[in-house]
Amino acid sequence: MLILQAERDSLLKPLQAVTGIVERRHTLPILSNVLIEGKGGQTKLLATDLEIQIDTAGPEGGAGDFRITTNAKKFQDILRALPAGALVSLDWDDSRLTLKAGKSRFALQTLPAADFPMMNVGEDISATFSLEQERFKTMLSQVQYSMAVQDIRYYLNGLLMQVEGSQLRLVATDGHRLAYAACAIDADLPHAEVILPRKTVLELFKLLNNPDDPIQIELLDKQVRFQCNGTTIVSKVIDGKFPDFNRVIPLDNDKIFVLSRAELLGALERVSILANEKFRGARLFLQPGLLSVVCSNNEQEEAREEIEIAYQGGELEVGFNIGYLMDVLRNIHSDDMQLAFGDANRSTLFTVPNNPNFKYIVMPMRI
Asked: DNA polymerase III beta sliding clamp C-terminal domain spans which residues (predicted)?
C-alpha cells in the first residue's frame, strides 16, 4: 500500500528535527523508532525517549490514514544518502516499509504503532509566554556552555528557566562557573521556574532557526512545552532545587576594567597552546595599564601575552581554567567585556558594558 510520496528534502528535514533524541540502542527497542502518522493527507513524525518527546509536521500528500514505526537512524541515513530532489515513495505492508527512489529500493522492518509509548502530557498550564526565536537562541547560547555534564548533583545537569513579571531569566552552572542571561517578555507572570535537562536544551537550540518567528513556551506540571516552526517539544523537567544564583554574583569586586573581547580571546587562544593538557590552568597578572596572561606546562614551556588596558588599581595574580575564560568570550558577541576582580581567592565577574542582562562568574583555581 502506497502511504506517501514526497520530495526527499521535505521528508528528511522533519525527520532530522525529531531524531536527535533517539538512541541507536535502547532497552525498549521501539524507542529507537520514529512514529510516522498520516491523516487526511497530512503527515506527522514523532520520536521520544520518555523524558522528551518531539513531533513535527511532515510533507503533505499522505495516502489515507496510517500509523507506522520504523528505525529512525536507518531511515534518516537512507534519505541522507539519496540525491537532493529525489522523489521518494513509501509503501507499507503489515511488517515492512519499502522506500523507493529512482532505481534505489530499501525494505525496512516496522513495529506496531499501537506499541509505541507516548508521554502523558499535562493539561494544566501554570505559565505561558512567547518571544522571538532569535532572542531566545541568543540567551541559550550565552548560558548553555556552563551546564554540568553527568554531575552527581543532577540539578546542575541542565538549565534554570525562571519567569517573573515581564522578565525571563536563564541560568546554568557546573559549580565552577555560572552564566546568567535575562530579557524582557510581553507578559506579566507570577514567579515560576523549571530546570530543563541538558538534552532538552541542546535539541531546543537546534530547533530555533527562524529568527523573527516566535517560540511559544508553556510551563506544565513537571513538564515544559515549546512550540515553533510546526514542531512541538515536550520535556520532563529536573526535579530538584537549583542553587540561589543571586548569592553567587560578587557585588564588591573593585578591580574593574574594560577591554576588547576579541583581543582577550585571541591572547587566551594563543597561550592555551602551551597550557597543561590536564589542568588547563592560566595565570592572569593585573597591574596598572597592563593585563598579562601566562600558560605553562610540565615540559617547562611557557607562553605569555600582554594586553594594554585602562586600569589604575592594585596589582593581582590569579589563576583560572583557561577553557572557562574562552567559553564565555566565544559565546558573547559584544565588542567589549568588563572584568571585575576581587582577590586571588574570589570569583571574577564578566559583564557586557551597559548591559545588565548578562553575567558570567568564574571561580579561581590554584596553579
From this structure: 247-366
